[in-house]
Amino acid sequence: MSPTDLAAWGLCFAIAAFCIGALPGLPRNENWARSLVAGLIVATAARYLLWRYTRTIPDLDAGIGTFAWAWFCLLAETAAFVELVTFMLVLSRTSNRTPEADRHQARLQAMLVDALPAVDVFIPTYNEGPEVVERSILGALSMDYPKLTVWVLDDGGRDWLREFCDRHGARYLRRTERNHAKAGNMNHALGHATGDLVAIFDADFVPRRNFLWRTVGFFDDPTIGIVQTPQHFFNRDPVQNNLSLQRCWPDEQRLFFDVMAAGRDAWNAAFCCGAGSVVRREALDAIGGFPTASITEDLLTTLAMLRKGWITRYLNERLAQGLAAETLEAFFVQRQRWCRGALQAIYLPEGPLGRGLSWFQRIMFFPFSWIIQYPVRILFLAVPAVYLWTGVTPLVPERAGETAAFLLPAMIMAFAGMRWLAPDTYMPFLSTVASVFSSFRLLPTVIAGLVRPFGVGFKVTPKGSLTAGGQVDLLTLSLLGLMGGVTAGGLAINLIPEWRILSADEFFPYASGWAMLNLSIVLVASLLCFEAKRHRNEERFPAQDAASLLADDIRRPCRILDLSLAGARVAVEGGLPDEITLDLPEVGRLQCRIVRRGSDFICVNFSGPGDDELAGLVRSIYGAGRSNAVDHLEPTEVVRSLLVRLAS
Question: Which of 501, 520, 517 is nearest to 387 (CA)?
Fold first, then answer.
């Protein structure tokens, strides 16, 4: 082994020792520590990329096809490195605005009501059913801020919704011309609202009662145009549901809202995400209302305000909950809209490349991830298959033996560093599976969005469409099956001496290992194509609430173990009739029917709660901030659940 090889392997062992010995003890919320880890990830990746450029590209003598393929793969790796650098830049910092929110809340609550900023709460809605939108309206009305007006902006023209708003005290607006989708709907409402601030909740989002107390105070700073809060979800998304990870894997958006958004805030580069935001009315008027040039009006609102000197602040607290995409169809409708909207922005003068932004702001708001990650994912799946069938390699085969010495330090640092930077939202294998699954459906959107960004209208994410299970995403499954079949076939044919089409070279062991890893990714991603059944119409929330029940004219103490808008699990002893009355604090009396009995508990369904009881349940569940989310990633349980799912 040469001195150069010894140095390369020495670095590999040093990185591994750092990740095992020093990394776990670093203070994760200190920006110097985050910058150190992010910098090491970038440095080891840059070292690998430098090796690729200087030692692994074949000459033209190897053939034009081999030469072109090697450069194509290298340019893809370079693009991935650019995305990595911008990603690590975001993750190299974090922010915690909770102490500021505490001070603001105390100050606001000491003020006279007349001195508080007036807030208009907008709930834009189009085609959501009563089971979705009524919950959101009641939650908004239950906020305990004393100076607010709730506006329901109905682009669906539904009379039952008007009647519901009239009964509960919400203002109802309906427009005759429905131009510019959600942005147009909210701009129409601006002509009726007169508050100092505008809070926005999608029709499936429910705020906590203290939402406005926690957010309004930030606007005492005249440079703040928007305050954004994270979007949390009370149901399981398709990744969690279809892979049977409901209890151990967080929802797919946690990496962005729990980690990336706080990092962007530390750089003053947070942006509005729509639901769960509060916007300064003066700033909205200054930019001419919500921008309508893109189907993602929230991003353009942030950029338009940046150009006027107003920034977006991010408060990373669970202050509202909504519905995650419930089906694969809804998942892709939502992601395709986000992707196309981000790509539209780069063609607009109001977008990240338009005038009025600094170069740093342009970099922070340019959609590198949307453009790069999906084609690169598919290419990396294809590389070993191309080699196994044609013998064409992405590098000089004679240099393949050096690959581990340069690639392993980068991989170890990236995987361990990401687990440290985002411990409850990232696992290398499963995060890759989710990205690969999305790539086949979103790559066409990326291409179409770059070639013809406009001409596709705003599509509302379907909500309230619980699946009975059994549906299959045949398109994605077919593409994954094709990729898996080609890879497995190439691997098999070269492992059988009589059929082998490749001569032995140094790249073959790497390609074989790479192919087997890809096959495992494709296998698990294929499971995502099968919609799993959702067993409840309403999600239940853990509870430990003292209550009482009335049965046969006898009142008994009991304890609520979990609670939903439709029913509860109740700890109680002794025999009970099928029909009982449950008396819940802050809710009132609910007529119930027992649907399941255990040794020391019963499960009940509520028998048509009235308006007052429904409002009380919304206050008790969503307004109080109960959570049924997976807050901590459990790697061992994730592996166990995946193995069970594979075996089922």
Answer: 501
- Radius of gyration of the CA atoms of the chain, in A: 27
Number of domains in the chain: 3
Cβ(139)–Cβ(207) under 8 Å? yes
Dist CA 241 CA 531 (whole Å): 8
Q: Which two tokens stand for residue 438?
A: 């999305």
Q: Which residues form the domain of 565?
A: 541-623
In a domain, 635, yes or no: no
| Cα dihedral 119→120→125→131 (10° resolution) | 60
Beta-carbon neighbour count of residue 114 at 10 Å? 8
- Assess contact for 501 and 391: CB atoms under 8 A: yes
What is the Cα–Cα distance from 588 to 569, expressed in whole angstroms?
Answer: 17
- Residues 204, 279 within the same domain: yes
Sign of the CA dihedral with 262 first, then 265, 267, and 273 last: positive
Tens of pLDDT, residues 316-349 = 999 999 999 989 999 999 999 999 999 999 999 9
Query: What are the C-alpha distances in Å from 413 to residues 15, 42, 405, 435, 491?
Result: 7, 9, 13, 20, 29
**Cα–Cα distance, 431 to 589 (Å, whole number):** 45
Buried b (16+ CB within 10 A) or exposed e, 522-554: bebbbbbbbbbebeeebbbbebebebbbebeee
Beta strands in 235-282 (DSSP E): 277-280
Which one is catalytic: 202, 237, 298, 562? Answer: 298
**pTM for this prediction:** 0.93
- Is 298 known to be catalytic? yes
Annotated active-site residue 552? The verdict is no
Single out the catalytic residue among 155, 202, 258, 265.
Answer: 155
Provide the 8-state DSSP code for 332: H
Residue 502 lies in a domain: no
The CATH number for 140's domain is: 3.90.550.10
pLDDT digits (tens, 9 = 90+) for 462-496: 776 555 567 899 999 999 999 999 999 999 999 88
Cα separation, 585 vs 242, whole angstroms: 36
Do 185 and 281 sit in the same domain of this protein? Answer: yes
